[in-house]
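Notes for week 9. Today we move from apo structures to complexes. The key idea is that a small molecule is not decoration. When we ask for a structure prediction with S-adenosylmethionine present, the ligand SMILES becomes part of the input, just like the chain. The input block below holds both the sequence and the ligand string. Read it once before you look at the output, and try to guess where the molecule might sit.
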Amino acid sequence: MDALERYIHDLSAPEEPLLHELDRETNLRAVAPRMLSGHIQGRLLEMLVRMAQPQRVLEIGTFTGYSALSMAAGLEEGAELHTVEVDDELEELAQSYFDRSPHGKKIRLHIGSALDVAPALGGVFDLVFIDGDKREYPDYYRMLLGDRDGRPLVRSGSVLIADNILWSGKVVEPVARRDRHTQAVVEFNRMVAEDPRVENVIVPLRDGLNLIRVK
Ligand SMILES: C[S@@+](CC[C@H](N)C(=O)[O-])C[C@H]1O[C@@H](n2cnc3c(N)ncnc32)[C@H](O)[C@@H]1O
């Protein structure tokens, strides 16, 4: 961690001990621990949830549960967070941390692809954190806005937060060098920027967040 990063960490709200433990355990046990949101992004997600006061949150891509627990900490009592993970091997670890957290009872963990699970949950979501497979980002967006089956999963005023939308800077590489992940992230960002139904701003925190509000 460089001096500026250390400064940011030291002068932001500290990481909850349970989240610190989850970060460490993820680093010991998970195949790609870098996928975890981490202290500062987790605190930002918590803050955004606290400000938007959603009653119903959807997360696409639970991984070990760090971002779900961060968002749940910002949720009011009675509000709920549905988090969807396609890899059933992650279920036990994520659920064990949800069970230990005072905010865990607000979280419902679903195993399966969000493209199947989310529409089946019914209703609309006030806030969505998109953090699944980058190659599927355009499909997640179509699903959420109702462009797949005519039934939107969001409403006017809903907030979408998409992670990794700078994809380690590869989004500005020449077209010929782009792999499938990069192509999909570039397509997603363009879809959002050209969609008159939403307004958005890209925040260059960590690997980039696209903050999107449905008009
Ligand atoms: C970047 S990680 C999520 C990190 C987590 N949100 C956090 O901040 O700690 C992406 C996760 O999405 C999952 N995933 C990929 N495709 C998915 C899909 N279609 N539906 C649900 N989860 C999916 C992967 O298995 C992986 O665990």
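The CA atoms of residues 138 and 187 lie 7 Å apart.
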